[in-house]
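=== Structural record ===
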Amino acid sequence: LEALAAGVPVVAAAVGGLAALPGVRTVPPDHPVALARAIDELLGAPPAPAALRATVAHLAWREVAARLAPP
């Protein structure tokens, strides 16, 4: 989450909560070739940092606190 908020691409195994985040590139667990391919593709054509930040902007603490604050 922090990496995306900083505009840094993320490659992760397709398990747990990371797979649900938009902007995260997932690969099958225990598949090093898929991991290497995903990293290589991101290095060759990295997504725009602003686009990555936008995918998680609604999860910023300020945004979450505003939604949870009593009226």
Remarks:
- Residues 9 and 46 are 7 Å apart (CA to CA).
- Strands lie at 10-13, 24-27.
